[in-house]
Amino acid sequence: MEMPSEFDRLLFFEHTRRTAEAHYAINPLDADNLTKWGGVLLELSQFQNGPDTNKMVQDAIDKLKEAVVIEPTKHDALWCLGNAYTSNAFLNPDQEEAKGDFEMATQYYEQACELDPENELYKKSLEVVDKAPELHVEIHKHGLGQQSMGQGASSSSGSKQQNAKKKNKDSDLKYDVCGWIILAVGLVVWLGFAKSNLPQPAPPS
Hints:
Elements: H1 6-26, H2 31-44, H3 51-70, H4 75-91, H5 95-115, H6 120-141, H7 144-148, H8 158-196
Helix pairs in contact: 1-2, 2-3, 2-4, 2-8, 3-4, 4-5, 4-6, 5-6, 6-8
């Protein structure tokens, strides 16, 4: 099975966002739709740059919180909130502010685990976020966080460039560890959307 291209993924997520937005206008109290909307906004944020990324992550948090207000025991929305706060933290170069977001993410992951204790993805997310503050320090110490938001420095010394190159591979692995959480949101949204759009069986004749 051929994997979708980045452009195909963008089109899919944008279509899902518009569908969720239209459904919200009809039924603003549908927690499933709000969760799908929040999750796809989180995915779309990965295609943005700088302030647009932060705004889209915050929009995702707002939608997911709406879902939890409507249905407090909706564990997938709580898990997505954990993902959103984790994303928010990594986008923020301020260590103390990021720490607060990681703590919020931990709380939401814990709630999701309590409601669905057999869910391996929830448990893995909780394990990863425990190490996230340390990764945050490493990422922003080498300026990788700024580069990911299109705000990298225009020049640097030769020695700094060499050090960055030596640590690029290690840092890329760290991004992979954190990035799978965000990617998982897209998988949940994708599967949920596909399931909801399966053709209905024909009525018996």
